[in-house]
Amino acid sequence: MFDRLRSDVQCILDRDPAARSTWEVVTCYPGLHAIWLHRPAHWCWRHGLPWLGRFISHFARWTTGIEIHPGAKIGERVFFDHAMGVVVGETAEIGDGCTIYQGVTLGGTSLYKGAKRHPTLGKDVVVSAGAKVLGGFEVGDGAKIGSNAVVIKPVPPGATAVGIPARIIPSKAGQSADVTEPQAARPFTAYGITQEDDPLSQAMRCLIDNASSQERQIALLWQAIEKLSANPQAPSKDCVPCDAAREQQFQADKLNELVGK
Prior knowledge:
Elements: H1 2-15, H2 22-28, H3 30-46, H4 50-64, E1 67-68, E2 73-74, E3 79-80, E4 87-88, E5 93-94, E6 99-100, E7 105-107, E8 120-121, E9 126-127, E10 132-134, E11 138-139, E12 144-145, E13 150-151, E14 160-162, E15 167-169, H5 199-227, H6 240-247, H7 252-258
Parallel strand pairs: 1-4, 2-5, 3-6, 4-7, 5-8, 6-9, 7-10, 8-11, 9-12, 10-13, 12-14
Antiparallel strand pairs: 14-15
């Protein structure tokens, strides 16, 4: 038991640069308190004491601002960072090493009692601030949920989900992160996404690059037309559009700056 308590504290020290000491983490981190209160609540829920489990859960919600149903399953080294307003449903499962930020909802979309209504998070999943993960599906190991995303379908291992409704961006390597590697040795994205994880921006950049390439090809065609002109000293009316094409250049660099390249 004491090893698990130390692991709870150490995972916060590893992942939160604002944490300065063990004493500070133990006394001032509501996410840690919510985890510690959930364990007796979950024990009561599994051993035929549902009211007592709900009461402990309600007390934890009142003191920490984090609502975890006593039926939810939470693994080891889970970190609720800030976490005010987090809601974790009854049939939700959170794997080892996950990080969950404030305003996150692991909710359900079904009214059937006893059914798997809430999501299952794999190992080392990051769920960013304000994200809603709704439904009884799985989020794969090492996946990231971007801030304010609304996820209503499974997320493959190592992928990133952003947007409303969430769009899935596969991992660059096409594989999940190596969860056997020590956590401290792996890169950690605090809020789940980077500048390269916006699929709309990626699509816009592809369109801009394609348009710029087409403009270059058109310019080469006009140069060929000029060479075929009868008299270079007195260009015909057919060559007037060539001058206009040179004046109205497609400014790909400026557009790429606007979409965040």
